[in-house]
Amino acid sequence: MIYTKIIGTGSYVPEKMMTNDDLKEFVDTSDEWIFSRTGIKERHIVTNEETIDLAEKAALLAMEDAGIDKSEIDIVLVATVTPDNFFPGVSQLLQARLGLNEVMAFDVNAACSGFLYVLNIADKMIKSGAYNTALIIGAETLTRLTDWRDRNTCVLFGDAAGAMIVTKSKENKIKDVICGSRGDTEDNLICKAVDIKDPAVNAASVQDHIHMNGSEVFKFATRIMPKTVTDLLERNNMELSDLDSIVAHQANARIISKAAKDLKFSMDKMFLNINHYGNTSAASVPLAIDQAIKSKFLKKGDKFITVAFGGGFTWGGALIEL
Ligand code: UT7
To answer: How many CB atoms within 10 Å of residue 72?
Structure first.
Protein backbone atom coordinates (compact mmCIF):
# COMPACT_ATOMS: atom_id res chain seq x y z
CA MET A 1 0.00 0.00 0.00
CA ILE A 2 1.40 3.42 -0.95
CA TYR A 3 0.77 6.24 1.50
CA THR A 4 1.78 9.92 1.44
CA LYS A 5 3.36 12.43 3.81
CA ILE A 6 4.48 16.06 3.98
CA ILE A 7 8.27 16.39 4.10
CA GLY A 8 8.76 20.15 3.74
CA THR A 9 6.99 23.50 3.70
CA GLY A 10 7.92 27.07 2.83
CA SER A 11 6.21 30.42 2.39
CA TYR A 12 6.89 33.95 1.22
CA VAL A 13 5.12 37.30 1.42
CA PRO A 14 6.15 40.46 -0.46
CA GLU A 15 8.04 43.07 1.51
CA LYS A 16 5.59 45.96 1.17
CA MET A 17 3.09 46.03 3.99
CA MET A 18 -0.16 47.99 4.00
CA THR A 19 -1.87 48.73 7.31
CA ASN A 20 -5.55 49.46 7.87
CA ASP A 21 -4.64 53.10 8.39
CA ASP A 22 -2.89 53.17 4.98
CA LEU A 23 -6.19 52.07 3.38
CA LYS A 24 -7.90 55.23 4.60
CA GLU A 25 -6.08 57.02 1.76
CA PHE A 26 -8.14 55.08 -0.80
CA VAL A 27 -11.51 54.45 0.83
CA ASP A 28 -13.81 55.55 3.63
CA THR A 29 -12.86 52.99 6.27
CA SER A 30 -11.19 52.66 9.67
CA ASP A 31 -8.87 50.33 11.53
CA GLU A 32 -11.68 49.78 14.04
CA TRP A 33 -14.17 48.64 11.34
CA ILE A 34 -11.71 46.38 9.52
CA PHE A 35 -10.26 44.73 12.63
CA SER A 36 -13.60 44.19 14.38
CA ARG A 37 -15.32 42.76 11.25
CA THR A 38 -12.42 40.69 9.88
CA GLY A 39 -9.52 40.39 12.34
CA ILE A 40 -7.18 41.98 9.77
CA LYS A 41 -4.61 44.60 10.85
CA GLU A 42 -2.26 44.59 7.87
CA ARG A 43 -1.54 42.78 4.61
CA HIS A 44 1.46 42.44 2.27
CA ILE A 45 1.12 43.54 -1.33
CA VAL A 46 3.24 43.20 -4.45
CA THR A 47 4.76 46.23 -6.10
CA ASN A 48 6.84 44.81 -8.95
CA GLU A 49 6.76 41.08 -8.23
CA GLU A 50 4.57 38.65 -10.16
CA THR A 51 2.85 35.51 -8.89
CA ILE A 52 5.70 33.35 -10.17
CA ASP A 53 8.24 35.35 -8.13
CA LEU A 54 6.31 34.62 -4.93
CA ALA A 55 5.84 30.96 -5.92
CA GLU A 56 9.54 30.51 -6.68
CA LYS A 57 10.65 31.86 -3.30
CA ALA A 58 8.18 29.66 -1.38
CA ALA A 59 9.12 26.60 -3.48
CA LEU A 60 12.86 27.02 -2.83
CA LEU A 61 12.22 27.23 0.92
CA ALA A 62 10.00 24.12 0.88
CA MET A 63 12.61 22.15 -1.12
CA GLU A 64 15.32 23.22 1.31
CA ASP A 65 13.11 22.31 4.28
CA ALA A 66 12.46 18.87 2.76
CA GLY A 67 16.16 18.38 2.08
CA ILE A 68 15.47 16.92 -1.35
CA ASP A 69 17.27 17.30 -4.63
CA LYS A 70 15.29 19.06 -7.35
CA SER A 71 15.66 15.99 -9.57
CA GLU A 72 13.33 14.09 -7.20
CA ILE A 73 10.30 16.25 -8.05
CA ASP A 74 8.05 14.61 -10.63
CA ILE A 75 4.87 16.74 -10.44
CA VAL A 76 4.45 20.52 -10.10
CA LEU A 77 1.00 21.86 -9.29
CA VAL A 78 0.22 25.53 -8.66
CA ALA A 79 -3.12 26.69 -7.28
CA THR A 80 -3.80 30.25 -8.36
CA VAL A 81 -6.50 32.55 -9.70
CA THR A 82 -3.90 35.21 -10.44
CA PRO A 83 -1.53 33.63 -12.96
CA ASP A 84 0.76 36.05 -14.75
CA ASN A 85 -0.45 34.81 -18.16
CA PHE A 86 -3.37 32.82 -19.52
CA PHE A 87 -0.49 30.64 -20.75
CA PRO A 88 2.19 29.57 -20.07
CA GLY A 89 1.14 28.69 -16.55
CA VAL A 90 2.97 29.61 -13.35
CA SER A 91 3.74 25.89 -12.85
CA GLN A 92 5.38 25.43 -16.26
CA LEU A 93 7.51 28.57 -15.94
CA LEU A 94 8.45 27.43 -12.46
CA GLN A 95 9.76 24.13 -13.90
CA ALA A 96 12.21 26.19 -15.95
CA ARG A 97 13.11 28.68 -13.21
CA LEU A 98 13.83 25.96 -10.67
CA GLY A 99 15.68 23.80 -13.22
CA LEU A 100 13.44 20.80 -12.54
CA ASN A 101 13.24 17.75 -14.78
CA GLU A 102 10.78 18.17 -17.65
CA VAL A 103 7.88 16.80 -15.60
CA MET A 104 4.12 17.33 -15.72
CA ALA A 105 3.22 20.80 -14.44
CA PHE A 106 -0.15 22.53 -14.42
CA ASP A 107 -2.10 25.31 -12.73
CA VAL A 108 -5.40 24.75 -10.93
CA ASN A 109 -8.11 27.37 -10.45
CA ALA A 110 -10.29 26.69 -7.42
CA ALA A 111 -9.95 30.13 -5.81
CA CYS A 112 -9.26 30.06 -2.05
CA SER A 113 -9.76 26.26 -1.92
CA GLY A 114 -7.11 25.79 -4.62
CA PHE A 115 -4.43 24.44 -2.31
CA LEU A 116 -6.74 21.67 -1.07
CA TYR A 117 -7.43 20.80 -4.71
CA VAL A 118 -3.72 20.49 -5.60
CA LEU A 119 -3.08 18.55 -2.39
CA ASN A 120 -5.89 16.17 -3.35
CA ILE A 121 -4.54 15.70 -6.90
CA ALA A 122 -0.93 15.17 -5.73
CA ASP A 123 -2.01 12.79 -2.97
CA LYS A 124 -4.04 10.62 -5.37
CA MET A 125 -1.39 10.69 -8.13
CA ILE A 126 1.29 9.51 -5.71
CA LYS A 127 -1.00 6.89 -4.16
CA SER A 128 -1.67 5.55 -7.69
CA GLY A 129 1.99 4.54 -7.82
CA ALA A 130 2.70 6.56 -10.96
CA TYR A 131 4.51 9.47 -9.23
CA ASN A 132 6.80 9.87 -6.22
CA THR A 133 7.23 13.47 -5.11
CA ALA A 134 5.10 16.55 -5.73
CA LEU A 135 5.88 20.23 -5.38
CA ILE A 136 2.53 21.87 -4.65
CA ILE A 137 2.02 25.59 -4.27
CA GLY A 138 -0.67 28.16 -3.58
CA ALA A 139 0.45 31.54 -4.96
CA GLU A 140 -1.60 34.69 -5.42
CA THR A 141 -1.30 38.37 -6.21
CA LEU A 142 -4.96 39.10 -5.63
CA THR A 143 -4.28 42.78 -4.98
CA ARG A 144 -3.74 43.10 -8.75
CA LEU A 145 -7.46 42.31 -9.18
CA THR A 146 -8.63 44.52 -6.34
CA ASP A 147 -10.77 47.59 -6.95
CA TRP A 148 -9.05 50.03 -4.61
CA ARG A 149 -12.21 52.21 -4.61
CA ASP A 150 -14.42 49.40 -3.27
CA ARG A 151 -14.20 49.30 0.54
CA ASN A 152 -16.28 46.11 0.61
CA THR A 153 -13.40 44.14 -0.92
CA CYS A 154 -10.12 46.07 -0.99
CA VAL A 155 -9.59 45.84 2.77
CA LEU A 156 -9.72 42.04 2.72
CA PHE A 157 -6.97 40.77 0.44
CA GLY A 158 -3.19 40.35 0.51
CA ASP A 159 -0.50 38.63 -1.58
CA ALA A 160 1.55 35.55 -0.66
CA ALA A 161 2.73 32.09 -1.65
CA GLY A 162 3.02 28.85 0.28
CA ALA A 163 4.60 25.60 -0.88
CA MET A 164 4.71 22.00 0.27
CA ILE A 165 6.60 18.87 -0.74
CA VAL A 166 4.46 15.73 -0.63
CA THR A 167 6.06 12.35 -1.16
CA LYS A 168 5.24 8.67 -0.99
CA SER A 169 5.53 7.03 2.39
CA LYS A 170 5.21 3.73 4.24
CA GLU A 171 3.24 5.51 6.97
CA ASN A 172 -0.28 6.83 6.40
CA LYS A 173 0.21 10.55 7.17
CA ILE A 174 -2.02 12.38 4.67
CA LYS A 175 -5.00 10.31 5.74
CA ASP A 176 -7.79 11.83 3.65
CA VAL A 177 -8.46 14.78 1.33
CA ILE A 178 -11.91 15.79 0.09
CA CYS A 179 -13.03 18.58 -2.25
CA GLY A 180 -16.33 19.83 -3.59
CA SER A 181 -17.94 22.51 -5.70
CA ARG A 182 -21.33 24.14 -6.26
CA GLY A 183 -21.46 26.60 -9.14
CA ASP A 184 -21.98 30.19 -7.98
CA THR A 185 -24.55 31.06 -10.64
CA GLU A 186 -25.56 34.22 -8.78
CA ASP A 187 -22.10 35.84 -9.07
CA ASN A 188 -21.66 36.13 -5.29
CA LEU A 189 -17.89 36.09 -5.74
CA ILE A 190 -16.63 36.78 -9.24
CA CYS A 191 -13.90 38.39 -11.32
CA LYS A 192 -14.42 38.16 -15.08
CA ALA A 193 -11.43 36.97 -17.14
CA VAL A 194 -12.05 38.82 -20.40
CA ASP A 195 -14.80 41.15 -21.49
CA ILE A 196 -16.93 39.87 -24.35
CA LYS A 197 -16.92 42.23 -27.32
CA ASP A 198 -17.49 42.33 -31.05
CA PRO A 199 -14.32 40.75 -32.53
CA ALA A 200 -14.50 43.20 -35.44
CA VAL A 201 -14.07 46.14 -33.06
CA ASN A 202 -10.49 46.50 -31.94
CA ALA A 203 -11.30 48.14 -28.61
CA ALA A 204 -8.90 47.93 -25.68
CA SER A 205 -9.95 45.23 -23.24
CA VAL A 206 -10.76 46.26 -19.69
CA GLN A 207 -9.57 44.21 -16.73
CA ASP A 208 -12.40 43.39 -14.34
CA HIS A 209 -12.11 43.57 -10.54
CA ILE A 210 -13.29 41.30 -7.75
CA HIS A 211 -17.03 41.63 -6.99
CA MET A 212 -18.41 40.09 -3.84
CA ASN A 213 -21.67 39.72 -1.95
CA GLY A 214 -19.97 39.52 1.45
CA SER A 215 -22.91 38.32 3.53
CA GLU A 216 -23.77 35.47 1.09
CA VAL A 217 -20.13 34.35 1.07
CA PHE A 218 -20.06 34.58 4.88
CA LYS A 219 -23.16 32.35 5.14
CA PHE A 220 -21.70 29.81 2.71
CA ALA A 221 -18.34 29.76 4.52
CA THR A 222 -19.78 29.28 8.00
CA ARG A 223 -21.94 26.39 6.72
CA ILE A 224 -19.35 24.56 4.63
CA MET A 225 -16.29 24.71 6.91
CA PRO A 226 -17.82 22.86 9.91
CA LYS A 227 -19.53 20.42 7.50
CA THR A 228 -16.22 19.60 5.78
CA VAL A 229 -14.54 19.00 9.16
CA THR A 230 -17.42 16.76 10.32
CA ASP A 231 -17.44 14.84 7.00
CA LEU A 232 -13.71 14.17 7.25
CA LEU A 233 -14.00 12.93 10.84
CA GLU A 234 -16.94 10.66 10.01
CA ARG A 235 -15.22 9.17 6.95
CA ASN A 236 -12.22 8.30 9.14
CA ASN A 237 -14.10 7.12 12.26
CA MET A 238 -12.62 9.90 14.32
CA GLU A 239 -13.95 12.35 16.90
CA LEU A 240 -13.21 16.05 17.15
CA SER A 241 -11.35 15.29 20.38
CA ASP A 242 -8.83 13.23 18.34
CA LEU A 243 -7.65 16.45 16.65
CA ASP A 244 -4.82 18.59 18.00
CA SER A 245 -5.83 21.57 15.87
CA ILE A 246 -7.57 22.97 12.81
CA VAL A 247 -5.80 25.16 10.25
CA ALA A 248 -8.54 26.95 8.35
CA HIS A 249 -8.47 29.26 5.33
CA GLN A 250 -7.79 32.75 6.68
CA ALA A 251 -10.64 34.75 5.12
CA ASN A 252 -12.13 36.34 8.21
CA ALA A 253 -11.41 35.72 11.91
CA ARG A 254 -15.18 35.87 12.55
CA ILE A 255 -15.77 33.02 10.09
CA ILE A 256 -13.10 30.95 11.86
CA SER A 257 -14.49 31.65 15.33
CA LYS A 258 -18.07 30.91 14.20
CA ALA A 259 -16.89 27.58 12.74
CA ALA A 260 -15.08 26.76 16.01
CA LYS A 261 -18.16 27.68 18.04
CA ASP A 262 -20.52 25.57 15.89
CA LEU A 263 -18.14 22.61 16.03
CA LYS A 264 -17.63 23.16 19.79
CA PHE A 265 -13.87 23.20 19.20
CA SER A 266 -11.58 25.41 21.29
CA MET A 267 -10.56 28.65 19.55
CA ASP A 268 -7.09 28.12 21.10
CA LYS A 269 -6.64 25.17 18.74
CA MET A 270 -7.60 27.14 15.62
CA PHE A 271 -4.53 28.60 13.91
CA LEU A 272 -4.84 32.35 13.19
CA ASN A 273 -2.50 34.61 11.21
CA ILE A 274 -5.04 36.69 9.29
CA ASN A 275 -4.16 39.79 11.33
CA HIS A 276 -0.81 40.06 9.46
CA TYR A 277 -1.75 38.88 5.96
CA GLY A 278 -5.46 39.30 5.21
CA ASN A 279 -7.05 36.82 2.83
CA THR A 280 -4.36 35.51 0.48
CA SER A 281 -6.70 33.13 -1.40
CA ALA A 282 -4.98 29.89 -2.49
CA ALA A 283 -1.82 30.90 -0.59
CA SER A 284 -3.68 31.18 2.71
CA VAL A 285 -3.68 27.48 3.68
CA PRO A 286 -0.04 26.63 2.82
CA LEU A 287 1.14 29.92 4.38
CA ALA A 288 -0.79 29.08 7.55
CA ILE A 289 0.48 25.48 7.66
CA ASP A 290 4.08 26.59 7.15
CA GLN A 291 3.81 29.22 9.90
CA ALA A 292 1.98 26.81 12.21
CA ILE A 293 4.83 24.30 11.83
CA LYS A 294 7.64 26.85 12.12
CA SER A 295 6.07 28.46 15.22
CA LYS A 296 5.54 24.98 16.79
CA PHE A 297 1.76 25.48 16.89
CA LEU A 298 1.80 22.20 14.91
CA LYS A 299 4.26 19.57 16.15
CA LYS A 300 5.47 16.25 14.79
CA GLY A 301 2.83 13.61 15.40
CA ASP A 302 -0.03 16.15 15.65
CA LYS A 303 -3.28 15.26 13.92
CA PHE A 304 -4.98 18.24 12.31
CA ILE A 305 -7.57 19.15 9.73
CA THR A 306 -6.95 21.90 7.22
CA VAL A 307 -10.07 23.30 5.60
CA ALA A 308 -10.91 25.96 3.03
CA PHE A 309 -13.78 27.47 1.06
CA GLY A 310 -13.72 29.90 -1.83
CA GLY A 311 -15.04 31.34 -5.03
CA GLY A 312 -16.54 28.93 -7.47
CA PHE A 313 -18.01 28.03 -4.99
CA THR A 314 -15.42 25.48 -3.92
CA TRP A 315 -14.33 23.83 -0.70
CA GLY A 316 -11.87 21.25 0.51
CA GLY A 317 -10.44 19.64 3.61
CA ALA A 318 -7.61 17.31 4.56
CA LEU A 319 -6.96 15.14 7.60
CA ILE A 320 -3.22 15.01 8.21
CA GLU A 321 -0.79 13.63 10.75
CA LEU A 322 2.51 15.49 10.78
O1 UT7 B 1 -12.13 33.72 0.45
C2 UT7 B 1 -13.46 34.12 0.25
C3 UT7 B 1 -13.54 35.61 0.17
N4 UT7 B 1 -14.52 36.33 0.87
C5 UT7 B 1 -14.92 36.21 2.16
O6 UT7 B 1 -14.57 35.34 2.90
C7 UT7 B 1 -15.85 37.28 2.64
C8 UT7 B 1 -16.94 36.78 3.56
N9 UT7 B 1 -17.68 37.91 4.10
C10 UT7 B 1 -17.19 38.69 5.07
O11 UT7 B 1 -16.10 38.44 5.56
C12 UT7 B 1 -18.02 39.85 5.56
O13 UT7 B 1 -19.31 39.77 4.96
C14 UT7 B 1 -17.38 41.25 5.25
C15 UT7 B 1 -16.15 41.43 6.14
C16 UT7 B 1 -16.98 41.34 3.79
C17 UT7 B 1 -18.37 42.36 5.57
O18 UT7 B 1 -18.78 42.27 6.94
P19 UT7 B 1 -20.31 42.42 7.33
O20 UT7 B 1 -20.39 42.39 8.79
O21 UT7 B 1 -21.06 41.36 6.54
O22 UT7 B 1 -20.63 43.88 6.82
P23 UT7 B 1 -21.71 44.36 5.74
O24 UT7 B 1 -21.27 43.96 4.38
O25 UT7 B 1 -23.07 43.91 6.21
O26 UT7 B 1 -21.62 45.92 5.88
C27 UT7 B 1 -22.00 46.60 7.06
C28 UT7 B 1 -21.74 48.08 6.87
C29 UT7 B 1 -22.30 48.63 5.56
O30 UT7 B 1 -22.78 49.93 5.82
P31 UT7 B 1 -24.35 50.22 6.00
O32 UT7 B 1 -24.97 49.79 4.71
O33 UT7 B 1 -24.76 49.38 7.17
O34 UT7 B 1 -24.39 51.69 6.25
C35 UT7 B 1 -21.10 48.71 4.66
O36 UT7 B 1 -21.23 49.71 3.67
O37 UT7 B 1 -20.33 48.32 6.81
C38 UT7 B 1 -20.02 49.08 5.64
N39 UT7 B 1 -18.69 48.71 5.18
C40 UT7 B 1 -17.58 49.32 5.62
N41 UT7 B 1 -17.39 50.32 6.48
C42 UT7 B 1 -16.12 50.69 6.71
C43 UT7 B 1 -18.35 47.74 4.31
N44 UT7 B 1 -17.02 47.70 4.16
C45 UT7 B 1 -16.52 48.67 4.96
C46 UT7 B 1 -15.22 49.12 5.24
N47 UT7 B 1 -15.06 50.13 6.13
N48 UT7 B 1 -14.11 48.58 4.68
So the answer is: 15
